[in-house]
């Protein structure tokens, strides 16, 4: 058993919007992801969506409002709430979702989450 | 809806080993806690136990081995694994546990987790 060094995990890849699984907590995947630009609008009907910014800054756009997150800030998008993450510059995030949650909210367009 | 600033939440209290609830993710409490010294040996029969070090350094002692965590490092104690967190100097953590999990593994000795 060993510590999961988040910066070390993030240093091992460059792709944007391609979450890497770095651990598990109960039935959830613990993931790190690099983001830049606009993701797609989506929601998760069955789960909240947890974002913790490790480096940089992102906006979580929702229909009614936008929440800006900086390093050291966390936000949980409640289940069913449509949202779009946007990062003007590259940002690094820790995200938590139940195992097998499609990152786009739709299995047809979701990326496969590699474990690193 | 607003960002949860972890350092800001941590600055609002001084007690050690007294987790504060700062948000919810599905049926889990998201908590920040300041720790210093030795906690009690305990396990959680029904849940993994997630630790992310935000500042400082802690040891997660287990019967077979000890894992040291520094800022930016995460560790999940598997359910049922006996462990004791130890911090030589004050450290600040993000922890995640299912709602109503006793922090000592035993409702009789657990602290009440205040929401801030």
Q: What's the rounded overall pLDDT mean of chain A? A: 95
CATH class of chain A: Mainly Beta
Number of domains of chain A: 1
Strand content of chain A: over 45%
Enumerate how many helices of chain A there are, as a single number: 1
CATH superfamily of chain A: Jelly Rolls
User: Architecture of chain A in CATH?
Assistant: Sandwich
Q: Pick out the low-confidence regions of chain A.
A: none
Q: Decide which structural class fits the backbone of chain A.
A: mainly beta
InterPro entries (chains A, B): Cupin_2, PKS_Associated_Protein, RmlC-like_jellyroll, RmlC_Cupin_sf
Domain Cupin type-2 (chains A, B): 30-95
Organism (chains A, B): Algicella marina
Protein name (chains A, B): Cupin domain-containing protein
Detailed description of the structure:
The structure is a homodimer of 116-residue chains. Chain A is mainly beta and 116 residues long. Chain A has one domain: Jelly Rolls. Chain A is built from 1 helix and 9 strands; from the N terminus they run E-H-E-E-E-E-E-E-E-E. In chain A, a hairpin with a 3-residue loop joins strand 5 and strand 6 (66-70). The first copy, chain A, starts with a strand and ends with a strand. The mean pLDDT of chain A is 95. The interface between A and B is medium-sized, with 33 and 33 residues. Strand 1 of chain A pairs antiparallel with strand 7 of chain B.
């Amino acid at each position: 058993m060993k510590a999961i060094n988040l910066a070390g995990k993030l240093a091992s890849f460059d792709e944007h919007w391609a979450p890497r699984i770095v651990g598990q907590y109960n039935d959830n995947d613990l993931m790190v992801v690099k983001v830049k630009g606009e993701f797609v609008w989506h929601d998760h009907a069955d789960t909240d969506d947890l974002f913790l910014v490790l480096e940089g800054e992102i906006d979580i756009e929702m229909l009614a409002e936008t929440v800006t997150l900086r390093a050291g800030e966390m936000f949980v998008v409640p289940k069913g709430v449509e949202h779009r993450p946007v990062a003007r510059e590259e940002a690094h995030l820790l995200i938590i979702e139940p195992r097998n949650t499609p990152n786009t909210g739709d299995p047809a367009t979701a990326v496969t989450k590699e474990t690193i």
